[in-house]
């Protein structure tokens, strides 16, 4: 199977030279997913809204690649404030609570832009 590159339309993808997702065989790697609404390029100020946008972008990338949310096996969450962890976890639980991938949350000093409060990356494996 050939490698497939998936774009969300974010201007950062071209600027930084990355793809929203890369499919390689039975795996799909989705990265660089922050809280922008990529149809409007608006970043909500609220971390909960940003997290919902992250999952919308992740779902769209996975579906375009022929995967489902249920295929997610690994997730990594980056947040810029430990105080946001509970709000992020609630949204993660809504989207991944039945899937229960291996997951890690990291509190980082900052993301690319100061308005970015959360970034999520996932790995999915196509089910046989």
Describe the structure.
- By secondary structure, this protein is an alpha+beta fold.
- The protein is built from three helices and six strands.
- It has a six-stranded mixed sheet with strand order 1-2-3-6-4-5, covered by helices on one side.
- It is globular.
- The model has no long low-confidence stretch (mean pLDDT 95).
Helix-strand layout with pairing:
Layout: E1 4-6, H1 11-16, E2 21-24, E3 27-34, H2 47-64, E4 72-79, H3 85-96, E5 102-107, E6 118-125
Parallel strand pairs: 4-5
Antiparallel strand pairs: 1-2, 2-3, 3-6, 4-6
Helix pairs in contact: 2-3
Describe, in short, the structure shown.
With 128 residues, the chain is of the alpha+beta class. It is built from 3 helices and 6 strands; from the N terminus they run βαββαβαββ.
């Amino acid at each position: 199977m050939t490698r497939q590159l998936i774009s969300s339309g974010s201007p950062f993808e071209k600027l930084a030279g990355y793809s929203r997702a890369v499919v390689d065989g039975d795996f799909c790697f989705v990265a660089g997913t922050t809280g922008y609404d990529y149809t409007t390029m608006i970043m909500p100020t609220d971390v909960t809204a940003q997290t919902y946008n992250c999952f919308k972008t992740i779902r769209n990338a996975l579906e375009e690649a022929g995967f489902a949310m249920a295929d997610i096996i690994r997730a990594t969450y980056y947040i810029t404030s430990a105080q946001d962890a509970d709000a992020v976890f609630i949204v993660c639980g809504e989207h991944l609570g039945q899937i229960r991938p291996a997951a890690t949350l990291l509190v980082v000093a900052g993301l690319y832009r100061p308005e970015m409060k959360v970034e999520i990356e996932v790995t999915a494996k196509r089910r046989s």
